[in-house]
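Appendix C reproduces, verbatim, an entry submitted by the partner laboratory led by Prof. M.T., so that reviewers can inspect both the input and the predicted structure.
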Amino acid sequence: MTTSVLPKDEIQLVYISERCADTDDNAIAKIKCRAEPNNNRRNITGALLYTEHYFLQYLEGEATVVDALYDSICLDPRHTNARVLLRTPIKQRDFSHWSLGVKKLLDSQENQDLIAVLNMIGRASTVSKSQLDWFKLALK
């Protein structure tokens, strides 16, 4: 799927969006089933973290391909208010083993800190790289 030597124009793009109330877990399972083969074909890797209110997704791959995918994701009616938190060149992928890993943050004691940070990021106009690193740990 991915090679050990990445092209020079590889990026990681992280975005957050507001999950629509009618986007249930079955809809998210359908997203995963459709995205996995498409991402494999495009050599895109990444992970999707979600809660009752938000999606946070990491996308990795060739810049033009990732940017085009993000543009199409923004048109998806299952969420609103998509905004890029980070778009940066990478030398190594963080999610090279996933064409699309998906993780739901349940409202449990162990996830309270992550949910609180995700809710804060969802309402914030800026985010720090260290805040995003928390989510990488949760997804790995």
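The beta strands are 10-19, 45-50, 54-62, 79-89, 101-104. Additional entries are available on request from the coordinating office.
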